[in-house]
């Protein structure tokens, strides 16, 4: 049954996926709301550009699923909420699963669910909570045929990086990705390594589970397109970008440019030309 939903997530020609993440409001971090203050408008603009999927929460999935027609993007449902992203962390950190996550995903006609796997310096309890979330989710996911996307995130020390800054060290990303696969992930959503040329190690350690690469913080057009081309060349099965789409001056244009790279093999210059046009 999972294969049926995965067929809605991955493009039939390229067998890759471009998922636009618009679930940032779930985490109570003011800086995450840039570009999505009017989330209904943001979802409508991105959906019209035709990515394979849009990642949303239980409270905002309606903005996608209320759109008429058969050809809108598939829903990826965010199933956990956390308070680990601020520049100054609160005294108590948590990662909590929504109630009845698979049932809610089925009710919302999702094609996949997404759950975090954090590795935060000196915060092992948060990592333990993530593992518990995944262990609870896995048998429910299998029973109802709902694919589980696990998002392994290695954080830099907060006092050094100041907020939502991931660690691109491949020596840390690779084992966490492997743990996510060992826990039963059907899809991996992982950060790029600082040295993109070694990303094949992430693909290898995933053992055939498709790896979608996160976009991270907002960067310039050429940089995000060059990075995307390099990651696809390393074997990535697609991308999950958020702020590089929703905070772009032309969200529809950058979505179409990236879709051209992911599914049609456009070069960086061809994608830039498409964006400019």
Question: Could you explain the architecture of this structure?
Answer:
The protein is an alpha/beta fold. The protein has a single domain (2-276), classed as Alpha-Beta Barrel (TIM Barrel). It is built from 12 helices and 10 strands. The strands form 2 sheets. An 8-stranded parallel beta barrel has the order 1-2-3-6-7-8-9-10, surrounded by 7 helices. A two-stranded antiparallel sheet has the order 4-5. The model has no long low-confidence stretch (mean pLDDT 93).
- Going by CATH, the architecture would be Alpha-Beta Barrel
* CATH class annotation: Alpha Beta
Radius of gyration (CA) equals 17 Å
- How much of the sequence lies in strands comes to 15-25%
Strand adjacency order, main sheet = 1-2-3-6-7-8-9-10
CATH overall fold name: TIM Barrel
Outline the low-pLDDT stretches. none
Number of strands: 10
Order of helices and strands: HEHEHEEEHEHEHHEHEHEHHH
What keyword list fits this structure?
277 residues; alpha/beta; TIM Barrel; 8-stranded parallel barrel
Short description:
With 277 residues, the chain is an alpha/beta fold.
Could you give the topology of this structure?
Elements: H1 2-9, E1 17-21, H2 39-49, E2 53-56, H3 62-65, E3 74-78, E4 80-82, E5 95-97, H4 101-107, E6 112-119, H5 124-144, E7 148-154, H6 158-161, H7 170-182, E8 187-190, H8 200-205, E9 211-214, H9 221-233, E10 238-241, H10 243-246, H11 251-264, H12 268-276
Parallel strand pairs: 1-2, 1-10, 2-3, 3-6, 6-7, 7-8, 8-9, 9-10
Antiparallel strand pairs: 4-5
Helix pairs in contact: 2-11, 4-5, 9-11, 9-12, 11-12
């Amino acid at each position: 049954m999972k294969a049926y939903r995965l067929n809605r997530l991955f493009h039939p020609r390229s067998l890759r996926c471009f998922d636009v993440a618009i679930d940032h409001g779930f985490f109570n971090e003011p800086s995450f709301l840039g570009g999505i203050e009017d989330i209904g408008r943001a979802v409508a603009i991105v959906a019209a550009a035709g990515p394979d999927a849009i990642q949303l929460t239980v409270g905002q999935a309606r903005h996608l699923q209320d759109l008429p027609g058969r050809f809108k993007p598939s829903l990826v449902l965010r199933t956990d909420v956390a308070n680990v992203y601020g520049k100054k962390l609160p005294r108590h950190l948590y990662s909590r699963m929504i109630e009845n996550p698979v049932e809610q995903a089925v009710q919302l006609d999702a094609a996949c669910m997404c759950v975090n796997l954090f590795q935060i310096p000196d915060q092992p309890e948060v990592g333990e909570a993530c593992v518990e979330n995944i262990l609870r989710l896995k048998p429910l996911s299998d029973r109802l045929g709902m694919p589980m996307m696990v998002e392994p995130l290695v954080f830099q020390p907060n006092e050094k990086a100041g907020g939502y800054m991931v660690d691109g060290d491949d020596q840390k990303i690779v084992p966490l990705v492997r743990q996510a696969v060992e826990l039963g992930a059907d899809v991996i959503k992982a950060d790029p390594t600082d040295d993109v040329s070694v990303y094949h190690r992430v693909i290898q350690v995933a053992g055939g589970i498709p790896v979608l690469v996160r976009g991270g913080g907002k960067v310039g057009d050429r940089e995000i397109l060059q990075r995307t081309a390099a990651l696809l060349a390393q074997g990535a099965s697609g991308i999950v970008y958020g702020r590089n789409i929703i905070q772009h001056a032309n969200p529809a244009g950058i979505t179409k440019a990236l879709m051209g790279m992911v599914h049609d093999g456009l070069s960086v210059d061809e994608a830039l030309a498409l964006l400019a046009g």
